[in-house]
Write a structure and sequence with these properties.
Shape: globular
Number of helices: 1
Radius of gyration: 11 Å
Largest sheet: 2 strands, antiparallel
Distance between the termini: 35 Å
Structural class: alpha+beta
Low-confidence stretches: none
CATH superfamily: Zinc/RING finger domain, C3HC4 (zinc finger)
Number of domains: 1
Strand content: 5-15%
Strand order of the largest sheet: 1-2
CATH architecture: 2-Layer Sandwich
Number of strands: 2
Order of helices and strands: EEH
């Protein structure tokens, strides 16, 4: 079974996400998860890049 990429915030498979987005630092998230995160903190949830 191949490893499937998952959103680091919600852990859902990115293939199931209606829209996936990539940050400038290269991490990929569900669009909804990243937008919600960025309302609280203006940095990447994984590496803290601004």
């Amino acid at each position: 079974m191949a490893d499937e990429e998952v959103c680091p915030v919600c852990h859902d498979p990115l293939g199931d996400a209606p829209k996936a987005v990539q940050t400038l630092c290269g991490h990929i998230y569900c669009a909804d998860c990243l937008l919600e995160w960025l309302q609280q903190a203006k940095r990447c949830p994984l590496c803290n890049a601004e």
